[in-house]
TrEMBL record:
<dbReference type="GO" id="GO:0070475">
    <property type="term" value="P:rRNA base methylation"/>
</dbReference>
<keyword id="KW-0808">Transferase</keyword>
<dbReference type="GO" id="GO:0051539">
    <property type="term" value="F:4 iron, 4 sulfur cluster binding"/>
</dbReference>
<keyword id="KW-0949">S-adenosyl-L-methionine</keyword>
<keyword id="KW-0472">Membrane</keyword>
<dbReference type="GO" id="GO:0046872">
    <property type="term" value="F:metal ion binding"/>
</dbReference>
<dbReference type="InterPro" id="IPR040072">
    <property type="entry name" value="Methyltransferase_A"/>
</dbReference>
<feature type="transmembrane region" description="Helical">
    <location>
        <begin position="330"/>
        <end position="355"/>
    </location>
</feature>
<keyword id="KW-1133">Transmembrane helix</keyword>
<keyword id="KW-0411">Iron-sulfur</keyword>
<dbReference type="GO" id="GO:0030488">
    <property type="term" value="P:tRNA methylation"/>
</dbReference>
<dbReference type="InterPro" id="IPR007197">
    <property type="entry name" value="rSAM"/>
</dbReference>
<feature type="domain" description="Radical SAM core">
    <location>
        <begin position="112"/>
        <end position="406"/>
    </location>
</feature>
<keyword id="KW-0489">Methyltransferase</keyword>
<dbReference type="InterPro" id="IPR013785">
    <property type="entry name" value="Aldolase_TIM"/>
</dbReference>
<keyword id="KW-0479">Metal-binding</keyword>
<keyword id="KW-0963">Cytoplasm</keyword>
Length: 438
């Protein structure tokens, strides 16, 4: 059976057009037509050179992935897309809708309106092995192509207007929800959802984001956030390859010893070297950096760790999306926000750079079944942690609002048992929550 490439695989499409002597200026026209006519055949695209049609029909498809199932939260603010790839694997993309006018800022009503943030998978599986993440225990399956990454945006855009994009990794959750599926015959699907370390799929990630920020998508880099455990060599070249992008770093502990206990990959990326890389990145990019922090009871949520974190973040301008791991779903932060896989998206405009240079978002962790080795930090501990960061270190700190809890709105491993039509309303999910940030 022939394997086709996605028409959104920019490097492959460009190479094939060049080899055939066809001007690559037609790439944007091809993408625009597919976006406007998602059910089209590539031979239907008008005004292309005659030689382009045979090339497109034999080498490419408008989409190499399909939306298998759609999950809607009961409150209507979160939608998960279960996407089947050409190789038979499944990934998940999550749409979070929120209203930036909710709440107050500086005692005054917020400006803005309804926004949608999309959390995108970059890999099937993950190599990082984070102890708090189900995905990390399952190993790495494969990288997504740049076209498969872009197609998640296209699929989501057919449902709503996407304003913000988040590339993230892992998390956990157990929940029931309503499933909408075109296939009633599947009785068991194993899904690695909202997963992957984006910077471990660097080439495809960069290519996909360049497509998203170019014609016809025209997304602003300021609306795209890449979350990473801290792949230092990739961070060192990220600004030159993708200027203007938001970077989120999953710190999760203020000292190397604790970080290694919960994130084995930290051994390869020592905290001291990571912080140096972040300072260099910020100096070169003049971008704020978001810090992700999952609070785990008795592990990284004590007063000592709060002071250590505060002192660590004093050294450079950083916007901290600080949170406790929560297996329950998505969230919106009161600044301008959201996340893939328990997602939190924090956007702080450049005009606020010197006014608000640190924002910490606290998100309590929900244990993942009986096998979880971690416990939830108490409300009092979260409050005390917040007070230290605010009072002693003048770091703006918020507590995340949950979204999509009833549909496992979080990233990572997803096991979906698709029942027959008679029991569809009670579909059971086991999902892994990704440590989102936005």
């Amino acid at each position: 059976m022939a394997t086709y490439r996605s028409v959104f695989d920019a490097a492959e499409l460009r190479a094939q057009l060049n080899d055939a002597g066809i001007n690559t200026k037609f790439m944007a026209s091809i993408w625009k037509y597919v976006l406007q006519n998602p059910g089209c055949e590539l031979g239907e695209i008008p005004d292309l050179p005659s030689s382009a049609y045979r090339l497109l029909r034999t080498k490419f498809k408008p989409f190499t992935s399909t939306v298998h199932s759609v999950f809607h939260s009961t409150d209507g603010v979160t939608t998960k897309l279960l996407i089947k790839l050409q190789n038979g694997a499944f990934v998940e993309a999550v749409i979070m809708t929120y209203d930036t006018r909710l709440g107050k800022y500086g005692g005054k009503p917020r400006l803005g309106g309804p926004r949608s943030t999309l959390c995108i998978s970059s890999q099937v599986g993950c190599k990082m092995g984070c102890k708090f993440c189900a995905t990390g225990t399952m190993g790495f399956k494969n990288n997504l192509t740049s076209g498969e990454i872009v197609e998640q945006l296209v699929h989501a855009s057919l449902l709503t207007n996407i304003r913000n994009i988040v590339f993230m990794w892992h998390h956990f959750d157990t929940i029931s929800c309503h499933v909408v599926s075109e296939n009633d015959d599947d009785d068991g699907i194993y899904v690695l959802m909202g997963m992957g370390e984006p910077l471990n799929n660097y080439t495809a990630l960069v290519e996909a984001i360049r497509v998203m920020t170019g014609s016809p998508f025209q997304l602003s880099p300021k609306r795209i956030t890449v979350s990473t455990v801290g792949i230092i060599h990739a961070i060192n070249k990220l600004h030159s390859d993708l200027p203007g992008l938001n970077l989120a770093v999953s710190l999760h502990a203020p000292v190397q010893e604790i970080r290694c206990q919960i994130m084995p990959s930290a051994r390869a990326f020592p905290l001291e070297k990571l912080m140096t890389a972040l300072q260099t990145y910020q100096k070169n990019s003049q971008q704020k950096i978001f810090i992700e922090y999952i609070m785990l009871d008795g592990m990284n949520d004590e007063e000592l760790q709060a002071h250590q974190l505060g002192k660590l973040l004093e050294t450079f301008q950083v916007v901290s999306s600080y949170f406790s791991i929560n297996a329950d779903g998505f969230s919106v932060v009161s600044l301008l926000c959201t996340h893939m896989c328990t997602l939190v998206y924090l956007f702080v405009f450049s005009a606020w750079w010197w006014v608000v240079n640190k924002v910490v978002n606290l998100i309590p962790f929900n244990p993942i079944g009986s096998s979880s080795q971690f416990r939830t930090s108490s409300d009092q501990k979260v409050s005390d942690f917040q007070k230290i960061l605010r009072g002693t270190y003048n770091i703006r700190t918020t507590v995340r609002k949950q979204m999509g809890q009833d549909i496992s709105g979080a990233c990572g491993q997803l096991v979906v048992n698709l029942p027959d039509k008679r029991t569809r309303e009670n579909t059971s999910l086991l999902t892994d929550i990704e440590d989102l940030r936005i």
